[in-house]
Design a protein that fits this description.
One of its GO terms (biological process) is 2-oxoglutarate metabolic process. By secondary structure, the protein is of the alpha/beta class. It folds into 3 domains: about 5-145 and about 265-335, FAD/NAD(P)-binding domain; about 160-265, 3-Layer(bba) Sandwich (FAD/NAD(P)-binding domain), CATH 3.50.50.60; about 350-450, 2-Layer Sandwich (Enolase-like, domain 1), CATH 3.30.390. Helices cover about 30% and strands about 25% of the residues. It contains 13 helices and 24 strands. Helix 1 links the parallel strand 1 (about 10-15) and strand 2 (about 35). Helix 3 (about 50-65) packs antiparallel against helix 4 and helix 3 (about 50-65) packs parallel to helix 6. The chain binds 1,4-dihydronicotinamide adenine dinucleotide. 1,4-dihydronicotinamide adenine dinucleotide (NAI) binds near residues 200 and 344.
């Protein structure tokens, strides 16, 4: 039994993916939990991120299927996009999940406290004048859409992804600043809805965090689709015009459009909530932790987007669960960040886990790394879907597969097996002997492993 004088076993500040996962796991383990949230439980992912954007991208896929239906002998005509209908569908998905999540939090007997919390002591959070104490505190305050110095997001012509999710009309044209995950996802959806899109990216390639072959394939397909992108071109300035914005990029080139979407990354929400005052170790706004997600203050943990690393909901879930188990004394295994799967839901999708070829060569030496690219041209189901792309494996010579990288329609759904292969340190021959369903896209993973194990079927060695 917990000591009532010490308050809760765990006080969690922030009810997004990291915070609520921690709360749910902690009560399962018999701990007394308070979960503090100023807005809505579910956070960025459910209300402003993963879920609504993927609904938008699905509507975009439906638009593409309609537009391209004649290729399949189906006669249909795309007569327009009704954004209020798209928004109603998207909001309906979010509302249903939100209701379910609220029900789970209630049923779990978590003390849910609505309000803005501030750290006022090493084991105390203040919410609207009320002090809540816990033997352990978990900081899970999430992230916000960043901008760059001098660039004001006004929510009208210069917008963030949050605004972009709630547009009443399809923009005729848009400039997207940033060719990272958010940039390419919105570029893809808007293009499918009929927007004339231009992406501006400072780095030499789109989705630059991915394996270079993935960037190349996305760029090739975007070019074919008619999505304009300018890589290696940092943004310089923006001016409002009568009809929208005029964006200048390095070298003086100007692009005009109805609006500018700023997608240059997300910053941690850590200011003005007592972290610095209480001496929590931080770097550029992020909260520093060890591999057990402990901050420099005993009993204070941090999870999710405020911890340096990939800002992904499922990383937050895993970290939240990890912290609950650590507090309960279960001694969980630290999380291998490379084993966290990544999917970018543009068309074509990009899915990966483990090391890129470049990173693997740095880690193991170029002569110890072997790769195999299985082209989806040899995969029946991908041909049926009329998608192009590949499954690329990065393996260690006489060792396990240390990276899987895929591009193509729907390949995000293939990441489950890839993630087990990486995390279970499977050798190509381990996977090659397992039978993959024919005809599926998943079969492409099987074929790639057959080839890497030296016995290709519908491929070359
Ligand atoms: P990001 O870090 O993926 O991409 C930002 C891009 O902006 C970078 O490529 C950067 O080089 C570029 N950039 C920055 N300053 C620039 C400038 N002055 N001029 C031109 N380009 C510039 O960040 P993004 O796309 O905003 O996403 C934020 C976070 O949200 C990411 O951590 C991402 O993982 C997460 N997210 C994940 C999704 C998924 O898993 N499918 C979907 C959407 C977001």
């Amino acid at each position: 039994m917990s000591d009532p004088n010490l308050g809760y076993d765990v006080v969690i500040l922030g009810g997004g993916s990291g915070g609520y996962a921690c709360a749910l796991r902690a009560v399962q383990l018999g701990l007394r939990v308070a979960l503090i949230e100023k807005d809505k439980v579910g956070g960025t992912c459910l209300h402003r991120g993963c879920i609504p954007t993927k609904a938008l991208l699905h509507a975009a896929e439906v638009a593409d299927s309609t537009r391209e239906s004649a290729q399949f002998g189906v006669l249909a005509e795309l007569t327009g996009i009704d954004m209020s209908g798209v928004n109603a569908y998207k909001d309906g998905v979010v509302a249903k999940l939100y209701k379910g999540l609220q029900g789970m939090i209630k049923a779990a007997k978590i003390d849910y406290i609505e309000g803005t919390g501030k750290l006022v002591g090493k084991n105390t959070v203040e919410v609207d004048g009320r002090r809540i104490t816990g033997k352990n505190l978990v900081l899970a305050t999430g992230s916000y859409s960043k901008s760059i110095p001098g660039l004001d997001i006004d929510g009208e012509r210069v917008i963030s992804s949050e605004h972009a999710l709630n547009l009443g009309e399809v923009p005729a044209s848009a400039v997207i600043l940033g060719g990272g995950v958010i940039g390419v996802e919105f570029a893809s959806a808007w293009h499918s809805f009929g927007t004339d899109v231009t992406i501006i990216e400072a780095l030499p390639r789109l989705v630059a965090a991915e394996d270079a072959d993935c960037s190349k394939q996305v760029e090739r397909t975007f070019r074919k689709r008619g999505i304009t992108f300018k890589t290696g071109k940092p943004f310089e300035s923006v001016k409002h015009t009568d009809t929208g914005v005029s964006v200048t990029i390095q070298g003086g080139e100007v692009v005009e459009a109805e609006l500018l979407l700023v997608a240059v990354g997300r910053g941690p929400v850590t200011q003005g909530i007592g972290y610095e005052e209480q001496g929590v170790g931080m770097d550029r706004g992020f909260v520093l932790t060890d591999e057990r997600l402990r901050t420099n203050i005993p009993g204070v943990y941090a999870v999710g987007d405020i911890v340096p690393g990939m800002q992904l909901a499922h990383r937050g879930f895993a970290q939240g669960i990890f912290v609950a188990e650590d507090i309960a004394g279960l001694d969980p295994q630290p999380i291998d960040e490379n084993g966290i799967p990544r999917v970018t839901y543009c068309e074509p999708e990009v899915a990966s886990v483990g090391l890129t070829e470049e990173k693997a060569k740095e880690k193991y030496g170029a002569d110890k790394v072997k790769t195999y690219n299985y082209n989806l041209g040899g995969n029946g189901k991908s041909q049926i879907l009329k998608t192009q792309g590949f499954v690329k494996l990065v393996g260690v010579v006489d060792g396990p597969v240390v990276g899987v990288h895929m591009v193509g329609s729907r390949v995000g759904e293939l990441i489950g097996e890839a993630q087990l292969i990486y995390n279970w340190e499977a050798f190509p021959s381990d996977v090659a002997q397992l039978i993959h369903m024919h005809p599926t896209q998943n079969e492409a993973l099987g074929e790639a492993h057959l080839a890497l194990a030296g016995k290709p079927l519908h491929a070359h060695a």
